[in-house]
Amino acid sequence: MPLRLHMNLVDQPSQVALLMEGRPYVVGRGSSADIHLNHPAVSRSHAQFQFHDGSWQVQDLNSSSGCYVNHERVAQLRLTRDPVQFRMGQVNCVAEWVPYRDAVVSDSQANWQLKQVQNSTPQLMQPMDLDTFANFATEILQNLFPRERAALLLLDEQGELTHSCGNPHWVNTDDFAGSRTAIRRVVETHKPVVLANIQDDRHLRIANSVVQQGINSLICVPVALNQTLYGVLYADSTEVSRPFTEIDLRVVTSYARQLGIVFGLREIDQELANS
Predict the structure, then answer these.
(1) Cα–Cα distance for residue pair 114/8, rounded to 1 Å
(2) Where's the FHA domain (predicted)?
(3) What is the DSSP string of 24-62?
(4) DSSP annotation string for the chain
(5) pLDDT, tens digit, for every residue of 169-208?
(6) Does residue 233 contact residue 255 with C-beta atoms inside 8 Å?
(7) Calpha distance 255→232 (Å, rounded)
(8) Domains along the chain with CATH numbers
């Protein structure tokens, strides 16, 4: 059975590799590694993954920073069928067995998400009031990430929430249950915030919303056009085995760009209507 390996680097989307039985895989920083993991605390040939005697096993290749389970250094690790958390150097990892069918579906899902984003523009361009538009935009985002909380959050000129649409039990302006700290970072930098493992961020991991909601990973991307910030696309997940990946960032960023253009066109239409 294939193995899906999530390697969670700080302030970056999760790097994901799909390993198949029948051959060993070396993970490391060196150019000859089968799976390249660019982190200064990772050795050139750090660890080897191989399916052997009916299970996936990890072998430390005498790396300088080691492999760890529950803060204890291990030379070898057997991966059970349930998701297993461990660390290579300073990189937190999650490994899980996946059926062959699910491995194929994962690739198909990514292609489907990108196609959904491309097909959404004509619908978003239809005349509608702001509430209807925001609800529709949120619905598209929730379809892209059905297992996570997801919403379009609109901001005022000071970067504060003014209107939000989505599941009413967690998304509303007065009692937003997501991470306001992540949103503030996006407002200040106009750059995406992606955390594959929120425990790697010493500020966010102690935030009340993160602790109370059990948020494990999140993605927050600005919706902007020509330096004008209209809002953010926000999604988070409580599943350890489902961190946000580079593909997720690509999909959400593409969608955010489209929404920024639509917001700009809506402003032009409003100006023409008022002139």
Answers:
(1) 23
(2) 25-74
(3) -EEEESSTT-SEE---TTS-TT-EEEEEETTEEEEEE-S
(4) --EEEEEE-TTSPBEEEEE-TTS-EEEESSTT-SEE---TTS-TT-EEEEEETTEEEEEE-S-SS-EEETTEEESEEEE-SS-EEEEETTEEEEEEE--HHHHHHHHHHHHHHHHHHHHHHHHHTS---HHHHHHHHHHHHHHHSTTSEEEEEEE-TTS-EEEE-S-TTT--STT--S-HHHHHHHHHHSS-EEES-GGG-TTGGG-HHHHHHT--EEEEEEEEETTEEEEEEEEEE--TT---BHHHHHHHHHHHHHHHHHHHHHHHHHHHHH-
(5) 666 666 677 888 888 899 999 999 988 888 878 888 888 8
(6) yes
(7) 11
(8) 3-98 (2.60.200.20), 105-274 (3.30.450.40)
